[in-house]
Amino acid sequence: MMQAAIGQSYLFGGNAPFVEELYEQYLNDPSSVTAEWRDYFDKLQAADSGARDVPHLPIQESFIQLARSPRVFASKPAEATWEAMQKQVSVLKLITAYRVLGARWATLDPLKRMDTSPVPELDPAYHGLTDADMAAVFNTGSFVGLSQGSLSEILGTLKQTYCGNIGLEYMHIMDSEQKRWVQNYFEGSRSTPRYDADARRRILKQVTAAETLERYLHTKYVGQKRFSLEGGESMIAALDHLIQNATRFGVKELIVGMAHRGRLNVLVNTLGKLPRDLFAEFEGKPSVELPSGDVKYHMGFSADIPTQTGPMHVSLAFNPSHLEIVNPVVEGSVRARQQRRKDNDRKEVVPVLIHGDAAFGGLGVNQGTFNLSGTRGYGTGGTVHLVVNNQVGFTTSDTRDMRSTLYATDIAKMVDAPILHVNGDDPEAVCFVMQAALEFRMTFKRDVVIDMVCFRKLGHNEGDDPMLTQPMMYKKIAKHPGVRARYVERLIADGVVTAADADQLIANYRAALDKGEHVEQTVLSNYTRDHKLDWTPFMGTHWAHPTETALPLSDLQRLSEKLTTLPEGFKPHPTVAKLLTARKAMAAGEQPFDWGMAETLAYAGLVELGYGVRLSGEDSGRGTFSHRHAVLHDQNRERWDAGAYVPLRNLSDNQADFLVIDSILNEEAVLAYEYGYACSSPNELIIWEAQFGDFANGAQVAIDQFIVSGETKWGRLCGLTMILPHGYDGQGPEHSSARVERYLQLCAEHNIQVVMPSTAAQMFHLLRRQMLRPYRKPLVICLSKRLLRYKESMSPLTDFTDGAFKPVIGEAELQEPKKVKRVLLCAGQVYYDLLNARRERDIKDIAIVRVEQLYPFPTEQLAAELARFPSAREVMWVQEEPKNQGAWYQIRHRLEAQIGPKQTLSFAGRPSSASPAVGYMSKHIAQLKAFIDEAMTLGK
């Protein structure tokens, strides 16, 4: 009878919160409630056993709803009350099940091949509801727009909302406000688009353009690769919808990244590239000749597109065949543009990424890019993701071999992104979820994902026969009339268009294509937008452009004072306090400048001149080797933001920005991001620092496909700087070599710069030169770890107030150059090993010359230095790397061109090795001694 008493006495009115609290206590510890309540809750739990959703959520909701509607049980016997309440709880559990699992029964697949395995939780019988309950009226809890209704009505509403052409995954979101937003948006609309006739005709026009272009190219350029969009034409309508509506939210720029599939369609039908220009590329006659160029489905484009609420600048990023690698590049470009606009709310520039289904979860760079999305140094305010899910993946994949997750989009759950699945055969539904994605992104500044399930009419490319591996799927595709045909049938049935109207759209589009034109003007001409980049000052310039990089003494000392002064009450770590005292002495000329101070002064001088500095890496705040200390931490305060002080941000009121970031542990995504940032910000010094130089191995795709070749393929200039610790100190294979040979192998056409500085002043002038010259090429700095604290490599104050970066540093100690018999050429820290050996042996006839810049090779400067030694019969290249690595084989031909007819060129270094370095200190020292002895012993 206690159950009856509980049912009649406590589950109503103001007692509901009390019961909820009791239930929470029970969930934590069943013994904490009385036996009667424990028995009651045990029965509720038993009714809920086996469900996959959150167990107490529907029960809590039932308490709330019962409190609102006490009349349901007021006049019924206790037994009837208990049964009715169980039914009510079951209805609420059913609603929760549809919210969590409804996408499993959604009609997402145009081919109707998708797995339709049973989902018991979506069956009312699973929750104890029968046909006899269908006419009974129940409360719906928090369901939007239907406070109560018959079970039949509730079930129909749930299926319409969660199991139609739109399927939703959002219950994984931890933030309640975001979760409620998605719930309200789709439950309030029943996931049903309601466009007027004009909007539907516009959608038809977009889908028609997409299909007609593909079919036109298929007949005009038979067999040529174009990675057709056929089967996914709704994407073009969705992008048009996004562009036309984003301006209403204050968006000024959309930066798009995508791989091959549908790219040509986007170029023509979304960005307004002239068809005749595309046709010229098919015929091998590009409008702009680049040193190497690229295939047409890698090319980027930008345009200003008119909308009802203002122009929208849309830029499609260049992308190589490495599919998703463009994604962090786009994010970096977006962040730079937001910075340039001072768009701190991140609403004026929005990234849009278009993915393939297999690549989305298959390529690890997306995990890295998602991981960047919420961090302070990399966030862009959320990205709109569109997955073109053709259900085949890359080439011939079966989903059982493609991933280990149910959906291609499951990786997005790592950042709590809502995932909106949609049937690509329903262009209106695709546009509808695009609108929802836009509004969610602009509301919460977070990522959102659209999974457009479609198909791929042709093979991986136009020369591939998919029937070889997917016969059953492609039999269905062969019978599919096409997205446009199905949409036309629907519009004709609704009286929106006639068959003649639809056919005329095709005729008009084809006629325009025959002329190489568009049906109508879709881009703005003679329009100049704000914040447009101008790269012309950096075109046609030379690396040796004369540039003043020295800092006047008064400026150096003034900046040094700022850099070494702490806020009142700030307690530095003892090591930092000692470092600041030393830096004061450096500025006073009392001791030489170390590398940390030289680097810091370089940044200080640049930000005062208006050049922003952005430095990122896995431990860049203090410096991987604890030499930089750009961020100082108050030892009396724990929180980073409250207890940190950055002197370089506190130089003056009108300085440029300085940002140093301790990045995530993903070199590929971070380096690609910084490349994208640098490509969109020519007047900022953008630096990526590897923790150890060989950590760049994990970012090799970004290096090969973008950094070293972006200019020759796409005409994209970039001033990105990479600092790669490099130096053989017996630390083993992974902490020695930055793989200098790889960068030199990639050098051609003055595409990048590779430098190995040997003094602190060289580092200072090198960083300033990178910005002060009208020259923007990627800079690779192979930086010695040992020299950061090596006294011989420190520089006097005068080296900063006078002078410049020296591509070659000549012999400075020998007084009689004419007596020199051998000239040693080297780069990096090995110079000091050679110098010390020469001093110890009191050798006077061997000169040592440092080649600080390995590329572009300083031919004239080295020739001038070698000319100082007319009696030298030997020129020897000395390196600490193994013979098959390092610079030797990459610059040998340049050195041979420098020596005279009576001179010989030789080598000293470690023997060739499969490993970058040895792991035994004893062997390391023995190898070092051997090649130093060889360098210091003249031949007879």
From TrEMBL:
Pfam families: 2-oxogl_dehyd_N, E1_dh, OxoGdeHyase_C, Transket_pyr. The keyword Oxidoreductase applies. One of its GO terms (cellular component) is oxoglutarate dehydrogenase complex. Keywords: Glycolysis, Oxidoreductase, Thiamine pyrophosphate. It catalyses: N(6)-[(R)-lipoyl]-L-lysyl-[protein] + 2-oxoglutarate + H(+) = N(6)-[(R)-S(8)-succinyldihydrolipoyl]-L-lysyl-[protein] + CO2. InterPro entries: 2-oxogl_dehyd_N (IPR032106), 2oxoglutarate_DH_E1 (IPR011603), DH_E1 (IPR001017), KGD_C_sf (IPR042179), ODO-1/KGD_C (IPR031717), THDP-binding (IPR029061), Transketolase-like_Pyr-bd (IPR005475). E1 component of the 2-oxoglutarate dehydrogenase (OGDH) complex which catalyzes the decarboxylation of 2-oxoglutarate, the first step in the conversion of 2-oxoglutarate to succinyl-CoA and CO(2). Belongs to the alpha-ketoglutarate dehydrogenase family. This is 2-oxoglutarate dehydrogenase E1 component.
